[in-house]
Specification:
This protein is an alpha+beta fold and 136 residues long. Helices cover 26% and strands 49% of the residues. The protein is built from three helices and eight strands, in the order H-E-E-E-E-H-E-E-E-E-H. A six-stranded mixed β-sheet has the order 4-1-8-7-6-5, with helices on both faces. The protein is globular, with a radius of gyration of 14 Å.
């Protein structure tokens, strides 16, 4: 099951790399989603949400701060116990400032029966590695 989980996370990131954040085929309807350590332009965007509708509302809030947002996985690591770490790079332009953004972040995904049941986004990659029980 571990390799299948890695492939699910890889496919999700392939959509995000194209700017398609609507892909929900691999997301559980009761998904738990969190953003940790996220501030954009001094605005705190941290939080926790449950369910696809709540996650989409949070995602739209996030997307609203940027233009041409892309999230590309640079490395995907099977953590066992149905967890997968994705070390990613997010590029965009600030919607208000026009400033380019090129940021490395991390996600810890928890999967069950082929669906993502939890997604924890960490703005600081070190925090993602720590949450995964790894070191940089």
């Amino acid at each position: 099951m571990s390799q299948k989980n890695v492939e699910i996370v890889r496919e999700l990131h392939e959509h995000w790399a194209r700017g398609d954040y609507t892909f929900a085929e691999s997301l559980d309807p009761q998904i738990e989603f969190s953003r940790n350590g996220t501030q954009v332009g001094g605005v705190d965007l941290e939080g926790q949400w449950r369910g696809l509708d709540a996650m989409w509302a949070a995602t739209l809030e996030w997307l609203g701060a940027f233009e041409d947002l892309r999230t590309e996985a640079e490395r995907i690591i099977d953590l066992g116990d149905d967890r997968v770490l994705a070390l990613a790079r997010q590029t965009a332009r600030g919607k208000e400032s026009g400033a380019p953004i090129d940021h490395k972040l991390g996600f810890v995904f928890t999967l069950h029966d082929g669906k993502v049941v939890r997604c924890d986004l960490y703005w600081d990659r070190v925090d993602a590695l720590e949450a995964a029980g790894l070191e940089e």
